[in-house]
Amino acid sequence: MAYEGRVGSKMGGGGMASHSATNQDRRERLRKLALETIDLEKDPYFFRNHVGSFECRLCLTVHQNDGSYLAHTQGRKHQTNLARRAAREAKEGKGLDPITGLPAGMIGQQIVQPRKNLIKIGRPGYKITKIRDPVTRQTGLLFQLQYPEIGTEIKPRYRFMSAFEQRVEQPPDKNFQYLLIAAEPYETVAFKLQAREVDRSGDRFWTWFDKDQKEFWLQMFFKTEREERYAGVPGLARR
């Protein structure tokens, strides 16, 4: 690292590095070292949240970039938590790799679960209906998807995904989120929604799968602007 231009040093003569500069240089060296040895796509504790930051699921820490996360994985806290989890799982005998003896998902695991070579038969038929609660004036959506060729033991699954998790529309738009519904052997379908909080109280949000008609229903309501703005405020009267 360069020491020129520091207080008390001459041009070309170097100088004492400050504590912050030393830490910055150390983090950069750890980042370069980690990039050569760690693949983030295979790290079971690496997670990109809905705002684009990086989280460590093991230590419950948040990092602004991949360099900060990689430096964290080489630190004492992460390595200590790795050792503690490995010791606990080895004691309980859970999730151990039969070849290496390490917990499943850790670096060194040799067995990779084979992916299913399932032939997709196309997208399901669907219908979307806009709905509104007559009392609270909340807006919502009702999804109806038809799966006539679905297996008898298979039930459609759903999840909400932020714009920062998808790789179809670049750059991601934080004003939108996606509802994914999957059921083999059909293709997974995604619906682009407003990035508003979903109301899961009471019977506002529900799903139902009709096994006879092979039809999947999902109803959702968005929270009102007042609830989103003042959520968690003490003394706020509930709806």
UniProtKB/TrEMBL annotation:
Residues 54-84 form the Matrin-type domain. It comes from the Eukaryota. GO terms for molecular function: nucleic acid binding; zinc ion binding. GO terms for cellular component: catalytic step 2 spliceosome; U2 snRNP; U2-type prespliceosome. This is Matrin-type domain-containing protein. It holds the Pfam family zf-met. GO terms for biological process: spliceosomal complex assembly. It is found in: Nucleus. Keywords: Metal-binding, mRNA processing, mRNA splicing, Nucleus, Spliceosome, Zinc, Zinc-finger. Residues 1-26 are annotated as: Disordered. The keyword Secreted does not apply. It comes from Ascodesmis nigricans. PANTHER family: SPLICING FACTOR 3A SUBUNIT 2. The keyword DNA damage does not apply. SMART domains: CactinC_cactus, ZnF_U1. Belongs to the SF3A2 family.
